[in-house]
Amino acid sequence: MEQQLFNHYLIFSSIILGLGVTKLLQNVGQLIKTNSNNIGEHFWPLYVWIVFIFFAQMQYWWAEYIDRDMVPSNFFLTVVNILFPVGLYLMVEILMPDCQSERTYNLKTHYFENKKRIFGLGVVLVVITMFRSFLILDKPPFEDTNLIRILFIITFLYLAFKEHDDKEWLDKLHLWGAVLNLAYLFIFILIYNLYLI
Q1: How far is CA 192 from CA 1, 9, 116, 184, in A?
Q2: CA-CA distance, 59 to 134, in Å (whole number)?
Q3: Nearest-5° Cα angle at 72, 66 to 78
Q4: How far apart are CA 111 and CA 26, in angstroms?
Q5: What is the DSSP string of 118-178?
Q6: Which residue ranges of the chain lie beneath pLDDT 50?
Q7: In angstroms, what CA-CA distances link 123 with 34, 130, 136, 160?
Q8: What's the pTM value of the predicted model, to 2 decimals?
Q9: Which of 133, 122, 95 minimizes the C-alpha distance to 111?
């Protein structure tokens, strides 16, 4: 019975994750196909965040299989569990401009116009994973992975609300913030998988 419940849940979760990965790859493909004259200014933090979201989607997919014995037992827990892939899909939607038209895109402008939405959603997603950890996986509140999650929250909040007159400094801050979060994610994946050994 529990295996059937897991399969039922996994199908729904995988559809949402699949849509997110598809959207991400479609938008990256559109960026690659877009004439370089149509991209006003490339912005490297955007590309790092694309890699970050892709690996976050992969980690969630992997974790779902690893934690298959901890199937959500009621509708509320299923909703908590499904909110993460839904949030990742929305992050892709907000982060990536629609490159299908012929207009000129300024990736940097798009990024800064949407940074509060992107990182605000990032904070919500991290809080959801913490609730998932407590409610579904029965993990203690101060485990190693939650300490990494707190670093994610601090960085997301800082990147969302930090304003500065020196635009070059702000660009570097967002690049290093993206790289730092990618490093956090890889450390999280490493710690998470060490529990499996």
Answers
A1: 27, 22, 28, 12
A2: 18
A3: 110
A4: 18
A5: HHHHHHHHHHHHHHHHHHTS---TT-HHHHHHHHHHHHHHHHHH---S-HHHHHHHHHHHH
A6: 197
A7: 31, 11, 20, 10
A8: 0.81
A9: 95
> 112-115: long-range contacts (C-beta < 8 A, 24 or more apart)?
115/159, 115/160, 115/174
pLDDT tens per residue across span 56-94: 888 888 877 777 676 666 777 778 788 889 999 999 999
Length of the chain measured in residues: 197
d(CA 19, CA 169) in angstroms, rounded, equals: 35
Query: Among candidates 78, 41, 40, which has minimal Cα distance to 171?
Result: 41
For residue 137, which amino acid is it?
L
Tell which residue, 147, 5, 17, has the closest CA to residue 70: 5
List of residues 6+ apart from 197 with CB closer than 8 A: none
* Pairing verdict, β 105-106 and 39-41: parallel
